[in-house]
Amino acid sequence: ETGVTQTPRHLVMGMTNKKSLKCEQHLGHNAMYWYKQSAKKPLELMFVYSLEERVENNSVPSRFSPECPNSSHLFLHLHTLQPEDSALYLCASSQDRAVYYGYTFGSGTRLTVV
Amino acid sequence: AQTVTQSQPEMSVQEAETVTLSCTYDTSESDYYLFWYKQPPSRQMILVIRQEAYKQQNATENRFSVNFQKAAKSFSLKISDSQLGDAAMYFCAYRSDRGAQKLVFGQGTRLTINP
């Protein structure tokens, strides 16, 4: 257990469903991130939250909606997804300005859209 | 924008042998950090080793070491005495010491260990 917990571990959803991915960290970090990992592609940074404010949104479709209610929790709300959205979604956290330490990652949610 | 390139999609090595994974990056900055992450089948990204760009000495962590060539913008990972548990995807990553400081990843190299 690394300190970053993601739930659920696996998720299968239909294109008309609404679901949410959850990420939780108790490392005292103040920045959290969502990455998308697809087969044969580099990790794609989706969203960055720093001190609970969204500081980056990398042209992600509006069917993905992040939420950061506090510094320990990060959600990714999903609705009307497409099959190409099937991927591993990784959450990470870091201490802003503590660049030396990199990020701490969760184990990801494997999402399948049918 | 910074980019990270791993030119070897797959590598394999015999158990107990040594393997080197390549990574190059592009940046105009002088202060930054470089990382190697390992992602085993459990999917969790684990930090293997890191290097500060201002340090000339190559980082070493047990069987893992890097060859950092700042002028060439190269950051290779050497795994000595390879073990079956080293089998994983390995990602090279760059993090700036200024601005957004986000972590930028390469495409990854899948390492197979042959018994």
Using brief descriptors, characterize the structure shown.
heterodimer; A: 114 residues; mainly beta; seven-stranded mixed sheet; four-stranded antiparallel sheet; 11 strands; 0% helix; B: 115 residues; six-stranded mixed sheet; globular
Please tell me what the overall shape of chain B is: globular
Spatial shape of chain A: globular
Note the run of SSEs of chain B as H and E: EEEEEEEEEEEE
- List how many beta strands of chain B DSSP finds: 12
The oligomeric status of these chains comes to heterodimer
Description of the molecule:
- The complex is a heterodimer of chains A (114) and B (115).
- Chain A has 114 residues and is an all-beta fold.
- Chain A contains no helices and eleven strands.
- Helices cover 0% and strands 56% of the residues of chain A.
- In chain A, strands 2, 4, 5, 6, 9, 10 and 11 form a seven-stranded mixed beta sheet that branches. A four-stranded antiparallel beta sheet of chain A has the order 1-3-8-7, with no helix packed on it.
- In chain A, a hairpin with a 2-residue loop joins strand 5 (44-50) and strand 6 (53-57).
- The relative contact order of chain B is 0.34.
- In chain B, a hairpin with a 6-residue loop joins strand 5 and strand 6.
- The A-B interface holds A 2, 33, 40-43, 45, 48, 55-56, 88, 90, 92, 96-97, 99-100, 102-103, 105-108, 110 and B 4, 33, 35, 37, 42-47, 50, 52, 91, 93, 95-97, 100-108.
Sequence-ordered SSE layout with sheet pairings:
The complex is a heterodimer of chains A (114) and B (115).
Chain A: E1 4-7, E2 10-13, E3 18-25, E4 31-37, E5 44-50, E6 53-57, E7 64-70, E8 73-79, E9 87-94, E10 104-105, E11 109-113
Parallel strand pairs in A: 2-11
Antiparallel strand pairs in A: 1-3, 3-8, 4-5, 4-9, 5-6, 7-8, 9-10, 9-11
Chain B: E1 3-5, E2 10-14, E3 19-21, E4 24-26, E5 32-39, E6 46-52, E7 60-61, E8 64-69, E9 74-79, E10 88-96, E11 103-105, E12 109-114
Parallel strand pairs in B: 2-12
Antiparallel strand pairs in B: 1-4, 3-9, 5-6, 5-10, 7-8, 8-9, 10-11, 10-12
